[in-house]
Design goal:
The protein is α/β, with parallel strands linked by helices. The chain has three domains: about 5-150, Response regulator (Rossmann fold), CATH 3.40.50; about 180-280, Beta-Lactamase, CATH 3.30.450.20; about 295-455, Reverse transcriptase/Diguanylate cyclase domain (Alpha-Beta Plaits, 2-Layer Sandwich). The protein is built from 15 helices and 15 strands. The strands form three sheets. Strands 1-3-2-4-5-6 form a six-stranded mixed β-sheet. A five-stranded antiparallel β-sheet has the order 8-7-11-10-9, sandwiched between helices. It is extended and about 85 Å long.
């Protein structure tokens, strides 16, 4: 019996805590372990600590204890043993998924075979790490949290879009429809007042005089099913087109209608209903933009960053051309907020965002990864060129006259040299960034020691005078 089992039999629960020197960068991460081996849990926590996580962790031994903990406390991530005796069978997993809801589930697998990978996905795992490769756990946790946040943001965007669509449907229930009729040759023979208003004309004669006698229908003909035979020979498949108003501005119209036949069942033309959806499409474009951009800096957000990285990895795999990822961390943001206030702190983030934009080519992507973290995706760029870009950004920040002065720590990784997936590429760049942060305190201490030695050896002479 392991130490963990003995403790659990006495108290049914225990709590591990580990703190990171960079805890200001992330809020404490609440984790629940379903595992029988204390050594594995300790190893997991140690790797998370190395990766700069601040963790508050509970553990249980079986599904019953897990359900009890989940009822009493919410968690960011649940890590389970695999295979786990208490989670065998579809019924037990269904109970676990019901309790977890949207909480990411990761498995620590003691032995993994190719057929087991498919079973892990079937069991609802976000990801898994092998017991012999616990060092991969921090990246799996980070990726699971990012995916969870992406889903939450996407659901919010969908709710906003559904709201806008419901407003649109409410308007369509009692709209002012634009209606026009065309003969078999496509010439407009009649229009209603709503269509005239929609297009900005005072009368039918003005509309026809402006050469719209055939344009209303001929503008649909470029591959549109609206002017061709319909499925039932009567109704016309709806289509969206773009028209020009009298003043030259664009109008997006949703057209639907039916074919018209005379008393002898001969085809006589079309009767078309037009609905102005310009504002609706503008709102949808705004929602899509909001879903992919950071509201403060205007850069791409982390969801857009992930999409870009996936696309670049796919492109790099096809072309065998490398690309680089530059991660940047704004130094001392907490201190700026504490000393000058959050308005100045937000301004510092925007200043960095502006310099990143100015340093980008049209094919590059600048993104705010979250908080004080930023990223640059540089297609067709190797490590040496990416390093030059990072140096240029640091120089631009150093040359700014606005106060307070700001600087960044930088980490660079390239694909496929340093990593082959989005997660491992981010992890490699993140480790390079923290290696730079670790060097800075040592360099600062060395500079202060030299300053003290110089002053003692040369009284009355300052470094500035020298």
């Amino acid at each position: 019996m392991s130490n963990l089992t003995q403790i659990a039999l006495q108290s049914d629960q225990a709590r591990f805590r580990t703190e990171s020197p960079a805890s200001h960068r992330r809020r404490p991460l609440r984790m629940l372990f379903i595992h029988r081996d204390a050594e594995v849990v300790d190893n997991c926590l140690e790797e998370l600590k190395k990766a700069q996580f601040t963790v508050s962790a509970d553990f249980v031994l079986n599904l019953a204890q897990c359900a009890e903990r989940l009822h009493a406390q919410s968690y960011d991530v649940v890590v389970a043993e695999y295979p786990c005796p208490s989670l065998k069978g579809s019924r037990a997993l269904q109970v676990l998924h019901k309790e977890l809801q949207e909480t990411p589930l990761l498995f620590v697998a003691s032995a993994i075979r190719s057929e087991s990978i498919a079973q892990l996905a079937a069991d609802g795992a976000f990801d898994y790490v092998e017991r012999d490769h616990i060092a991969q756990l921090p990246m799996a946790v980070r990726q699971a949290l990012n995916e969870r946040q992406l889903r939450e943001e996407l659901e919010e965007a969908r709710k906003a879009l559904r709201h806008s669509q419901s407003l649109y449907r409410a308007l369509v229930d009692n709209p002012a429809y634009g209606i026009f009729r065309c003969n078999a040759e496509g010439e407009t023979i009649d229009v209603n007042q709503a269509l005239l208003t929609m297009l900005g004309y005072a009368s039918k004669e003005d509309l026809l005089a402006a050469h719209h006698s055939t344009e209303l229908l001929s503008s649909l003909g470029k591959g549109s099913s609206l002017v061709g035979p319909s499925a039932d020979g009567k109704r016309i498949e709806p289509v969206e087109i773009e028209w020009k108003r009298k003043d030259g501005t664009s109008l997006k119209a949703w057209l639907s209608g039916r074919e018209v036949y005379d008393d002898k069942a001969n085809f006589a033309g079309y009767e078309i209903i037009a609905v102005d959806v310009t504002e609706q499409r503008t709102l949808e474009d705004q929602l899509r933009h909001q879903a992919s951009s950071d509201s403060l800096t205007g850069l791409s957000n982390h969801r857009s960053l992930f999409d870009t990285l996936h696309a670049e990895i796919a492109r790099s795999s096809r072309t065998n051309r490398e690309f680089s990822l530059v991660l940047l961390d704004l130094d001392g943001l907490k201190g700026i907020n504490d000393q000058f206030g959050h308005v100045v702190g937000d301004r510092a983030l925007c200043r960095l965002g502006r310099i990143l934009k100015d340093s980008c080519r049209s094919v590059d992507t600048a993104a705010r990864h979250g908080g004080d973290e930023f990223a640059l995706v540089l297609p067709e760029t190797g490590m040496a060129a990416a390093t030059l870009v990072a140096h240029r950004i640091c120089e631009l920040l150093a040359s700014e006259t606005e106060e307070p002065a700001i600087s960044v720590s930088v980490g660079i990784a390239s694909h496929p040299k340093d990593a082959g997936t989005v997660g491992t590429l981010l992890y490699a760049a993140d480790r390079a960034l923290y290696a730079m942060k670790d060097k800075r305190p040592r360099a600062a201490r060395a500079a202060r020691a030299f300053e003290s030695h110089f002053t003692a050896s040369h009284p009355g002479i300052s470094r500035n005078q020298e």
